[in-house]
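Sample intake sheet
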Amino acid sequence: MDVKEIRNSLHQIPELGRKEYKTKEYIINLAKNLNCKIYEVTNTGIVLFFNANKNDTICFRSDMDALPILEKNEVSYKSKNIGVMHACGHDGHMAMLLSYAIWASNNLDKLKHNIVCLFQPSEEDNAGANDIIKSNILDKLKVTKIFGFHIWPKLEENKIFSMPRGMLASSGEVTININGKSYHAANRKTDDDAIMKAFNIITKFYDYCNKIKEPHLINFGKINAGSARNIVPGSAYIEATLRAFSDDIFNMMANELKRLCEINQDDNYEIELIINCNYPSVINDEELFLKYQNILNINKLDKPFLQAEDFGCYTRKYKALFMLLGCGNTNLLHTDNFDFNSEILQTGVETYKKISCLE
C-alpha cells in the first residue's frame, strides 16, 4: 500500500477531534503487521515505537482530526462522513507518517535513533497536543527531539519550507461576557449600557494594538447584544482571537484587554474575560534548523505566518523542527474545496527517512 492509497482511504473517513475512532482503527490495523510496539494514548491517540536499540529517541508527529465542513470536491476519495472533511491536510500528514512507519519496520538496522510515530488527536479543537504531553508517553519513551509537517497552500509545490525560531503564531480564543440590567429606553438615566461597554472595550483595544510594531493579530469576530430597539441592553457577548509570535507580545496584549475590561466594570455591570490560550507559537530550534537546512533542502521562509498550530505545545518542551510542505496554487486550508496533489506526500516520507538515518 503506497502513500497515495493511504491518503485516499483516510480522506474518506474524516472525524472530529477526540472522536477519531475509525481513523484510530485504520492506523492500528495497519500497524499490527509492523515491527513496533503500539501504545494507545488518551481515547484516540496512537504511538508506534520502533526500538532500534539506540541511545536516543526522536518523534515524528502527525495530527488526525478533520473539520466540520461539507466537502464540495467531486473526487473518488470524497468524504463519506457527510458534513466532516479533511480540509486541513491531516489525511496527508497521517499518510506520510504511516508510509514511513512501513519503511521503518523493514529497515530497523538503518535507523540511527529509536523512533516514535505519534498520531495525535484533536489539533483543530482545544489542542490535543496537551493531552499527549500530559500522558507522559513521550517522556516514557525518552523522546529528545520532535519533528512535524504541515501541507501548505501557496508555497511552491513539493518544496519544504521552514525557519528558525517563531514560525507560527500563539493563538488565544477570547470570550467577554458583559452582564447588567436591561430596562425600557424611556427610563434611561445614564449613557452606559452593555453595547457601549462592548464598544469601548473593542475600540480602545484596537487603538492599543495598532501601536504595536511587532507582528500580531486581533480580530473581534462575534458580538451579540440587545433584544429590541426600545430596550436598554443589559448584556453583551463578544468573541475574538489574539495572535502573536512572541510570548511577551501576546501577554502584553492579553494584559491590556484585561485592564480594559476591569476599567469598564462598575456597580451596574460585571465583565468576565476568558482567554483560552492552548496554542502557543511554534518555535523551531535554531540548531536543528541549521543542521537540517541543507540536508533536507529546506527553503527558509522570509517571514512567519499568523496561523496557529498546537505543535507549538511540543516546542515548549522538546527541541523541535516543524516544516511546511508546499502544495502549490490550491484552494486555502479550511475551505470546502481544499485538495492537493498526493504526489507530494512521498517527499514527506523521504524526509522522515533522512532524519531517522542521520546521527
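Comment: The chain has two domains: 3-168+281-356, 170-278. The domain at 3-168+281-356 is CATH 3.40.630.10 (Aminopeptidase).
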